[in-house]
Amino acid sequence: MATRKKSAEQEVSVEDKLKSLYKLQSYLSEIDRIKTLRGELPLEVADLDDEIAGLGTRINNFELELKQLDENTKLQKGKIETSKTKIEKYNKQLENVRNSKEYDHLSKEIEFETLEIELSEKHIREYAQEAASIKEQIEAANELLKDKTSDLEHKKQELDDIVSETKAQEEKIREKAKKTEATIEPRLLTAFKRIRKNARNGLGVVPIQRGACGGCFNKIPPQKQMDIKLGKKIIVCEYCGRIMIDPEMAGISEK
Question: Does 4 score more than 70 pLDDT?
Answer without folding.
Answer: no
